[in-house]
Amino acid sequence: MKLVVTVMLKAGVLDPQGKAIGQALTGLGFEGVGEVRVGKRIELELAETDPVAAEAAGAEMARKLLANMVIESFKVEVA
Amino acid sequence: MKLVVTVMLKAGVLDPQGKAIGQALTGLGFEGVGEVRVGKRIELELAETDPVAAEAAGAEMARKLLANMVIESFKVEVA
User: Fold this and answer.
1) How does pLDDT run across A56-79, given as a tens digit for each residue?
2) Option in A25, A31, A47 nearest B65 (CB)
3) Which chain B residues contact residue A34 at CB under 8 A?
4) Residues whose CB falls within 8 Å of the CB of residue B30, separated by 6 or more in sequence, listed in order
5) 3-state secondary structure (DSSP) of residue A20
6) pLDDT grade, residue B55 (50/70/90)?
7) From the CA of A40, how many Å to the nearest CA of chain B?
């Protein structure tokens, strides 16, 4: 079963990488670029076949390793 | 209009970061973790209000800056 965990910085946490991308895009001539936020997309192949158990495992993985819960939030989807 | 650009390594391209995450998860006691791939999720706020034009702009941004087309593929979604 394939799981997708998306990790983004929480709203209000400064995102320098996003800011740099926004400035680079404007520098390249793209107009009307506002806020840019960058996060991680982690695709996992799990042996688990029950979607509910897989989603719970994904959330546990995010809390323990994939996300820094102080500044990041995450979302788990079964793909 | 909000745009989401997802950038992932192409299939077949070695993903050391994903491999490290897979090993760390196994080390933490998670069982049945197979392949792990890590990519970027870039959320952009655009002044553009036409979804088709916004999507085209997003693809152009990905080709010019956000993705390395040699080893990465991208997907643009209007959120």
Assistant:
1) 999 999 999 999 999 999 999 998
2) A25
3) 44-47
4) A57, A60, A61
5) helix
6) very high
7) 5
Sorted by where each begins, the domain ranges of chain B are 2-78
At A73, the amino acid letter reads: S
Tell whether the model's pLDDT for residue B47 goes beyond 90: yes
Q: Which residues of chain B have a CB within 8 Å of the CB of A5? A: none
pLDDT at A74: 98
What superfamily would CATH give domain B2-78? Phosphoribosylformylglycinamidine synthase subunit PurS (3.30.1280.10)
The reported pLDDT for the residue numbered A79 is: 87
How far is it, in rounded angstroms, from Cα A24 to Cα A30? 9
How many angstroms separate the CA of residue B50 from the nearest CA in chain A? 13
Structure tokens at B45: 């706020």
Contact across the interface for B34 and A46, Cβ inside 8 Å: yes
The residues, ordered by sequence, that sit 6+ positions from A65 with a Cβ below 8 Å of its Cβ are B21, B24, B25, B28
- Which residues from chain B sit within 8 angstroms of residue A29, using beta carbons? none
CA distance B5 to chain A (A): 10
Write the ipTM: 0.92
